[in-house]
Structures are given as C-alpha cells and as structure tokens.
Amino acid sequence: SPVIWWIRRDLRLADNPALTAAVNTGAPVIPVYILDAQDEALGAAPKFRLGLGLEHFSGVLEKAGSRLILRRGGALEVLRELISETGAGAVHWSRLYDPQAIARDTEVKQQLKAQGAAARSHGGRLLFEPWSVETKTGGMYKVFTPFWKSVRVRDVDSLRPAPSEIPAPDTWPASEEISDWKMGAAMRRGADVVARYCRVGEAAAQDRLDEFLEDKVSAYKECRDFPGEDATSGLSENLAWGEISPHRLWHLGRAAMEQGGSGAETFLKEVVWREFAYHLVYHSPHILTESWRQEWRDFPWSHEDTPQFQAWQRGQTGYGFVDAAMRELYVTGKMHNRARMIVASFLTKHLMIHWKCGMDWFADTLVDWDPAANAMGWQWVAGSGPDAAPFFRVFNPSGQLDKFDPSGVYTRRWIAEGQGQPPRSALDFFDAAPRSWNLAPDMPRANPVISLQAGRDRALAAYHESRENG
Ligand code: FAD
C-alpha cells in the first residue's frame, strides 16, 4: 500500500528525512499538503509566501514524476480521508516545535495509530532536537553563549541527496487547485511587488548559499551589520519554509570555515541562534505570547492602535533608519537584522508600544516569518526575554544610521521623498502600500513623531519606576 508524505514546512527534496523514510519503504509515495486552521491563521505575507512555495514545489514534484496533492481541512480528517481513498498504510512528516503544532501532531499520531496506520515524525527542520540539548544539571539553556558552546562540537546529520525517484501510485487521489486557495487574498495591495523580491524554491536557495559562501562569507563578520550591503545570506525565507535545510548551511559553512577566516564561524553562530530560538520555544512556549520574564508582564507598554503606531508601520516616523527599514519590510517582506533591532527598539522604547504589537505586525508582513525567531527577537530587544539586551540600552536610530549607513545607501534605497530621481525600490513602496494610507513619493518627509530625547527619558523613567515598584 502507498505511504503518505505529509508536507509541512519542508518544501524540499534534499536533506529531508521524512521524504527519505517514505521513499525507503519502497511503496508509492503520495505527497500531500493540508491547509488547516493553523495555516489559515497565518499572517498575510507568510500565507502569500507559502502559496508561492507550494506552487513552485508542485512543479518540482511533477518534474520528479510525482505530484503535490492539495487538501483543505482538519489535518486528522484529511489524512483519514486520504487513507481510506488510497489504502495508504503509513504517514511520514517532519516535526514542528510550536505548541499548537505539537498538540495537533500528537493527536494525529495517536488517532492514526489507533486506527492501525503507522504515523512517523522525523527531524530535519533543526540541527539539534530541542530536547537533546541540556545543561549539565539537566535543564534548558536560557543564555545563548553556553548553548552555542555545547552544540558547536556536536555531530550533525550528514546531507542527503534528493531521491533519484519518488515512486508514484497507479492512480492519484484528487487534489484541489492552489489558485482556489487564494493565498494572497489578505495582501492589501502589493503582492506582485513583494513576489519580485522573493527567492522561491530549493534550487534558488542552494545557488544562493553557494554564492554566499563563495563570495561573501569571508567579509560576513565585518559587513553583516550594514543594511545597505548585500553581506548576509538572505536565506531566512527559504529556511522558514524549509526550502533549504539548516544542515546544508552547517556542513557547507563548516567546510568554508576550515578553509580559514572567521566569517564562516560567525555565520554558523547565527544559524545556531535559530536553533536557540526553537530551544526556548520548545522548553518555554509562553515566549510566543507573553513576556518571558514575569517582572515585565505589568510594564506600562501601550497596546493601542495610535497614530504613532501607524506612523511606525507605514515608515513615517521621520527617522531615516526606522522609515527605511519599515518600508523595506513592506516591499520585500524581509528586513535586515540590524534594522529589525532598531525598529523594535524604537517601538518598544521611544514609542513605549508593546513588543507584541510589533511582533504581530512582523507576523503579518514578513515572508521569512518564523514564530520562534520573531518572538525571541522582539523579547531580546524589549528586554523581557531570557537572554535579552538590558532595557536601558536604547538604540539611537540617528546614531545607528551614521554608524551603519554612513553613505546613506540604505535610506536612499527605500525613502523616495527628497530625491530627484528615486530608485525603483523606493518607488515600489508606493505600489506596495495600500491606497488607504494616502502616501505619495512627492510628499514632504514626515516630521519626527517624537523627540529622541523625550522618548528615551520617558522609557527610562517607566523602567526605573517599574523596578522600584517590582
Ligand atoms: P544571515 O545573517 O545570513 O544568517 C543566517 C541564518 O541564521 C538566517 O537566515 C536565520 O535563519 C539565522 N539567524 C540569523 N540571525 C538570527 C537571529 N537573530 N535569530 C534567529 N535566527 C537568526 N528571523 C527569521 O527568520 N524570522 C523572523 O520572523 C525573525 N524576526 C525577527 C524579529 C526581530 C525583532 C529581530 C531582532 C530578529 C528577527 N529575526 C527573524 C532574526 C534575523 O533578523 C533574521 O533571521 C535575519 O535578518 C535573516 O537574514 P539572513 O537570512 O540574511 O541572515
């Protein structure tokens, strides 16, 4: 009887233990993607990007003599239907680590087993399963550096080539059409703009990794903080959807490291920050929904949808670094890491708006949205996370701009106002932004929404007060 490969965040053929296990049974393999309630609840940009990934991956599977079966509904119900339609005897999938996915998958596993089908979950999304890394006393790591020290010398699964063939069943079960799923429906206006900036699919991701390791990794350590430079791998969107494995980054990165240069080691360390984020989510899932540290839960952050919050979302704060970054996000669905720190600090400190409001905006607009990295990143900046920057370290967006964008290349790329002939990227923002925002490239630059000094003083006063009362 055939086996079902339940595809989730692993849109790739290489280094995919779930696929390898399915193929190794020797039985025909039925690849299926199930759009369930958890996917329906995705933010606009992640859902759109998932749609692009699925469309692409469907073509990849067809070239490999297989197909992608698309079904909508509850995962368990759909799998049961497919089992009864095809007579499949087993389901294989790769693990996810957020609490909702774990709850769903646990239920699916129990129920399928109860009805006599084999249900097997596999690794592949992470280098190190979160439960396999523990401190000497048997607990979770709360700080990155010891986590890094404990894993950097560990063995990592070797790379697996894409299977040479994915055996097909004699008859295929029916599939829905991706166009009927309307994955871009919630994109306010700019879906086609965002799509131009996406890198979709396994082949493109592998090419980019090769190019990055060949040309850029040696300067990664020195240049990775400069948002105007093409100095980082840009692979987060592919990692988010499983179009490349972290194993590939790890093994090829290590090979680059052995050839000398500290750039590759710094790069591997960043890849392990992603692992650390999943370690935190697995062991303390409340990091996704509330301040990780209890003493931050009453901090007087605002939750309201104020004009200042809108100015931040729309790249209209009057501060070049913040506005360039927020527009980059809106146009490309991505944002440079330093810029993410600057806009998060500006929101949670100068504007005193809750980190969750910022996290939710990112979850709606990032094509590389990753629940673990996003929550950890926001709580790191806000000061409420386990291994966090102290709250009183308030980034000054003007000083940071002088330091990390001294030639102004980043702000010119994203802010059209005031430029005689703005580049296309800066104009793209006005095509991507919803009409209701009423923005035009010939309008004057926004005035600062707050003075940096006043915002900083207010934030620090609130911090000191909360510590005295706490
Ligand atoms: P590179 O510098 O090439 O790094 C390689 C890979 O390492 C990345 O693709 C990523 O998977 C991982 N990585 C690098 N830095 C981090 C980090 N600080 N934390 C976790 N993993 C890291 N990353 C996401 O993938 N999705 C998110 O939703 C996300 N939200 C963030 C929110 C905030 C407030 C902050 C401060 C950071 C967030 N990050 C997120 C982490 C980081 O900004 C991005 O991973 C990085 O900018 C992606 O660019 P790159 O692929 O060129 O990274």
From TrEMBL:
PROSITE patterns: DNA_PHOTOLYASES_1_2, PHR_CRY_ALPHA_BETA
Required cofactor(s): FAD; (6R)-5,10-methylene-5,6,7,8-tetrahydrofolate
Flavoprotein keyword on record: yes
Entry annotated with the keyword Repeat: no
Coiled-coil residues: none
Keywords: Chromophore, FAD, Flavoprotein
Superkingdom of origin: Bacteria
InterPro entries to which the protein is assigned, alphabetical: Crypto/Photolyase_FAD-like_sf, Crypto/Photolyase_N_sf, Cryptochr/Photolyase_FAD-bd, Cryptochrome/DNA_photolyase_1, DNA_photolyase_1_CS_C, DNA_photolyase_N, Rossmann-like_a/b/a_fold
Pfam families given in the database record: DNA_photolyase, FAD_binding_7
Photolyase/cryptochrome alpha/beta domain: residues covered: 1-127
SUPFAM superfamilies for the chain: Cryptochrome/photolyase FAD-binding domain, Cryptochrome/photolyase, N-terminal domain
Family designation: Belongs to the DNA photolyase family.
Name the UniProt record assigns to this protein: DNA photolyase family protein
